[in-house]
Amino acid sequence: MDKTRVTHIEDGFDFLGFSLRQYNTGQGKKLFIKPSRDSIKKAKNKIKDTFSVMRGRPVKEIIRVLNPIIRGYGQYWKHVVSKKTYSYMDNYIFLKVRKYLKQLHPKKSRKWISKRYFKKPQHGGNNKWILTCPLTNIQLLKMSWIKIERHVMVAYKNSPDDPSLREYWEKRARKVFNTENTLDRMKLARKQGYRCALCKQTLQNGETVTVRNLKVSTGEFAKLVHVPCIK
């Protein structure tokens, strides 16, 4: 099948899960990049399948399975126009959550379910409809909590070989690391100053990074290290 075609930018096209299209606005013509319909459909199907597989399982288990999925799609979409998509996905997931809880407690009232499983976000806010495990207090992530960050182009004169720009390039590398890794790895990286726990060099030097439990004077802790540094 021929995958190549010519199209006008005003008609738009999809590429790598994104929809690129030029729109007429009050400020003239602008190019908007949004999550594509197929990408959103795949995300919904993934979440729908997860609820089907996890039906009847404890709340803490379904939260631990769903959070990486929500975070993964949110992180992938966060550099484009995604605010409405985030809100749409949050509403979709909420409807699935209500259905899942009703199946989990078919004889309980909606008021009982709401009081037991929904709380305000632990980081602050007035939304009282955050799915929360009553035993562990872990909460279901909302995609709208993920901050949308526009990609910043590198200035043509900023060379990686310029020693005076070392801090600039390390900051950009940290943003890339945060985009490509889970929240747990991001937290470990921040604690370590984005440096390997063994060689003390930057984590973003092109080598594969993994998590290892390392023994220190106060006990054993999970640390991010370069794979080649492991002996």
Provide a quick synopsis of the model:
By secondary structure, this protein is α+β, with helices and mostly antiparallel strands. 39% of the residues lie in helices and 17% in strands.
Question: Can you lay out the helices and strands and say which pair or pack?
Answer:
Layout: E1 13-15, E2 18-25, E3 28-35, H1 37-53, H2 59-77, H3 83-104, H4 110-117, E4 118-119, E5 130-131, H5 166-180, H6 183-191, E6 209-216, E7 219-226
Antiparallel strand pairs: 1-2, 2-3, 4-5, 6-7
Helix content: 25-40%
Beta-strand residue percentage: 15-25%
Q: What's the number of domains?
A: 2
Q: If you average the pLDDT, what whole number results?
A: 86
Order of helices and strands: EEEHHHHEEHHEE
Distance between the termini: 49 Å
Spatial strand arrangement across the major sheet: 1-2-3
Main pleated sheet: 3 strands, antiparallel
Shape label: flat
What is the radius of gyration?
Answer: 22 Å
Compute the number of helices.
6
Number of strands: 7
Secondary structural class = alpha+beta
Low-pLDDT ranges: none
Keyword list:
231 residues; alpha+beta; three-stranded antiparallel sheet; two-stranded antiparallel sheet; 6 helices; 7 strands; 39% helix
